[in-house]
Amino acid sequence: MDELVSVQWLAEHLDDPRLRVFDATVQVTRRLWVPTIRSGRREWRQGHIPGSAFANLFDLSDPDRPKRTLTTPTPEWFSARAGALGIADDSRVVVYDRRENMWAARLWWMLRTFGFDNAAVLDGGWTAWQKQDYPVCTTRCGYPPATFHATARPDLVVDKHAVLEALEDPDVVLINALGRRQHRGDVNEYGRRGHIPGSRNVTAWEILDRTTQCYRPLPELRSKVGSALEAERVITYCGAGAAASSLAHVLVRLGHPHVAIYEGGLLEWCADRHLPLETGS
């Protein structure tokens, strides 16, 4: 499958018996710039793409880490949870969400991290589906359990130690997918202000058309990413791995062969007072 599919494509393939469609939404609210998150299952129950099931990213993440981090679990854990969702080794998976594609991209990246490439993000997600007046289902849907074999690709996810090494490596480019105010240090969502030193800022919102929630055309995306495409390796980060996954998804579509995400993000980085930050553009 392509890494990105349209709502038209999905509508034409809903009867595919191998297809598995998932809503992976996480809802975020903020009070005084401090984000709180919860599963989007409630909204899925109120209406979803016909046949689609809900994939709870908290359940798919490492159970030994705080749920807000959405940290990649062991292959054994992910195999069991993905299989319980009905994903088999020969399935075709489409993931969507109700926000800015980033939660869908997070699950897409997790699948990719565990060796599963037959998955796509739905371009524009729930917003695009509704704008095209496609049918909506309110029946709770799910798929029969299947067997999923996860094969870890450790080079697709890095930790803070690898990021520290990257700060001294001219062949690695760091890109912050958070908003400009967070990048500059105008706001404080993670305990300290600023961004990882030397990192560029390409926000997960500017790679989208804000009206349709679809990704911008590839030539525009290539322009926004710029010379990062020439780097030997690119590491994206955000708060805890979701916006970073959306930007990583774009980089893969643009053909970069060595993309990783720092899923600990500023949530982890800012908590360690010994790790450097810088402010400004």
Automatic annotation (TrEMBL):
Q: What is its EC number?
A: 2.8.1.-
Provide the top EC class: transferase
PROSITE patterns under this entry? RHODANESE_3
Does the record's keyword annotation contain Repeat? yes
Q: Name one GO molecular function term.
A: transferase activity
Q: Which UniProt keywords apply?
A: Repeat, Transferase
Q: Where is the Rhodanese domain?
A: 15-138, 192-278
Q: Where are the transmembrane segments?
A: none
Q: Which SMART domains match?
A: RHOD
Matching entries from CDD domains are given as: TST_Repeat_1
Q: What is this protein called?
A: Sulfurtransferase
Instruction: Give the species.
Output: Rhodococcus indonesiensis
